[in-house]
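Q: What residues go here?
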C-alpha cells in the first residue's frame, strides 16, 4: 500500500493483473522456486506459500505473528500468447471467518434487545480498529508480493487497483 494512501482502504481486497509470455507450467515452476513452503520456518525467500499448477497462495515472511497481513491469491490463466496471473490480496480464510462471526453473531444474539446496542457498536468498532491496527504492520505487503511474482515470471503489471 502506498504510504500516503488512506489506512481505511487497507481493509478492502486489492487486485492486480500480471501478464507474461511464459506458459502456465513455467510460471508455476518459477514461482515455486521463488517461494518457500508455507510451513518452513527458515528459508531462502522473503515469501512463503503454496504453489500449484493453476493457482498459488503467497504471503510475506514475517518473524512475528500477524494473521491480518495480506495473503496474495493467484490464479494462472493460460492465454494463446502467454499467461495472465490474476492476483487478489485479502485476509486469510480463518481471519475472514472469525471477523464475520465477530460482527454478525452478536447482532443475531442481541437482536431487538435495546440495552445491547452499545455493546454491539463497541464490538464492531473494536473489529475495525483491530483490522486497521494490524494492517499498519503490513503496509506495503501487497506491492511487495505483486512485484515478487512479476519478477519471478518475467511479467509486467498491467492493472493494480491501488487506493
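A:
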Amino acid at each position: 500500500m502506498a504510504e500516503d494512501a488512506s489506512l481505511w482502504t487497507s481493509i478492502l481486497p486489492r487486485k492486480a493483473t500480471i501478464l507474461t509470455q511464459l506458459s502456465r507450467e513455467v510460471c508455476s515452476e518459477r514461482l515455486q522456486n521463488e517461494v518457500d513452503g508455507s510451513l518452513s520456518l527458515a528459508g531462502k525467500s522473503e515469501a512463503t506459500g503454496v504453489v500449484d499448477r493453476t493457482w498459488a497462495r503467497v504471503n510475506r515472511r514475517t518473524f512475528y505473528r500477524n494473521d491480518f497481513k495480506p495473503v496474495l491469491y493467484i490464479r494462472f490463466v493460460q492465454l494463446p500468447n502467454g499467461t495472465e496471473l490474476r492476483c487478489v490480496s485479502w485476509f486469510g480464510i480463518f481471519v475472514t471467518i472469525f471477523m464475520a462471526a465477530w460482527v454478525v453473531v452478536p447482532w443475531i444474539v442481541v437482536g431487538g434487545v435495546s440495552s445491547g446496542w452499545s455493546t454491539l457498536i463497541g464490538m464492531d468498532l473494536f473489529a475495525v480498529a483491530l483490522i486497521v491496527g494490524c494492517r499498519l504492520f503490513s503496509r506495503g505487503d501487497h506491492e511487495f508480493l505483486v512485484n515478487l511474482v512479476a519478477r519471478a515470471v518475467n511479467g509486467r503489471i498491467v492493472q493494480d487497483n491501488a487506493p
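A: Context that may help when evaluating the design: The two ends are 8 Å apart (CA to CA). Residues 117-136 form the longest helix (20 residues).
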